[in-house]
Amino acid sequence: MVDAGIRARVVRFLNGDFVPEDLARIFLFARDRCDGREPVQEIGDFVAHKAERNKGIVTREVRDWALIAFFMSFFNRHPPGANPYITNRSLPSQFVPWLHATLRRAPPRLRKFPMAKAKKLVETIEQKIVRTNFGTISVERLNAEELDYIDKLTSSFVVRPAFTSDRLFTDLKATLRSSGVLEPKESNAFDQQKRLTELFAVTLMHGCAVDLGDGLNTTLMASDPINGGPISVDAGIPVPNPGGVPLAIATAMYKTELSPQGNMEEDLINAPQPWAFELELRPNGLLCRLG
After folding, report:
1. In this structure, are residues 254 and 268 in contact, taking their beta carbons and an 8 Å threshold?
2. Nearest 5°: CA angle at 247, between 242 and 250?
3. Which domain holds residue 67?
4. How many Å apart are CA 89 and CA 138, to the nearest integer?
5. Which superkingdom heads the taxonomic lineage of this protein's source (predicted)?
6. Model-level pTM?
7. Most buried one in 25, 98, 183, 266, CB count within 10 A?
């Protein structure tokens, strides 16, 4: 049986009468009926409990990004041309999780091998790890193929969002269709509301803490790029800086194709970043400071 309450909210949304609470209820409804569509599940979870995330697609991607950012900093501290696996016998204990995180992100050109072979190679490298008495690890007895593979992984890193606004909207639309609250004939009308759905997700993700493990966390922050690029929600990861104050490397965990102009109120566009306040989506369809 079609949920009459959610159906009424969908119809009101389609008719251009935007009520932010409608989208919140729609996402809560959809997260339990999304059939494995992770972006829909994730935004529904943000609606239900925004304070901190410790599971889900965003948490996985942020944790992978934290490992990659840390090891990128670690490798860059070695002299040019020096292979850290030859010159350094005290590697950080997170080396193995980094290997797996990099493998999950690596495109074929970086993996160089089919995924099955790459996984096997990582398992072989893992078996050659020796743990030291100082809480670090040493990787020894690597053959030429294994060294070459690690060199390729350390020579580049892959930046990617947990999901894009396009994927979120497509998955939400499919979920509502399969649940019967969005009728096939309403597909085009629903497409006209894509922008509001994209911006609503920004308000939910902004300011949420993501648990990185080991007592660490980072806060997702909505971003209005200085160069006029699209609105995104970023995860900043502090990394060691031999020259002084730790650096923060940020990458988008949620990306839209929406520019600030026409989608944000001017007060928000002109506010200094990072935005240490909550955001909301006004009934006029503009992103703004809450309160």
Report:
1. no
2. 145
3. 58-154
4. 5
5. Bacteria
6. 0.85
7. 98
